[in-house]
Design a protein that fits this description.
Blueprint: H1 3-11, E1 18-24, H2 29-41, E2 45-50, E3 55-59, H3 64-73, E4 77-78
Antiparallel strand pairs: 1-3, 1-4, 2-3
Helix pairs in contact: 2-3
Length: 79
């Protein structure tokens, strides 16, 4: 096993930056899914959305413009 193999085996263990945003307009589980999918399509990982609190958490390094675009295309807006 070479150094490249060792690095590849552990690369998935590197913690991702955790982000929290507030999204206005989510009313149900379907809304949560729309927001989660929009963010995942742009590279976010481990997305959780809570329509009751409006809080969305995700891991990854996304430009704020990509996040805003994703939320808008899903039919919502940042709070």
């Amino acid at each position: 096993m070479g150094l490249k193999d060792i690095f590849a085996a552990h690369a998935s263990e590197v913690p991702q930056k955790k982000n929290t945003i507030k999204v206005a307009g989510m009313h149900c589980n379907a809304c949560e899914k729309l927001v989660s999918t929009a963010l995942e399509d742009r590279g976010a990982k481990n997305v959780t959305a809570d329509h009751e609190t409006g809080v969305v958490e995700y891991e990854g390094e996304l430009e704020s413009s990509l996040v805003s675009e994703a939320i808008a295309e899903a039919g919502f807006e940042l709070a």
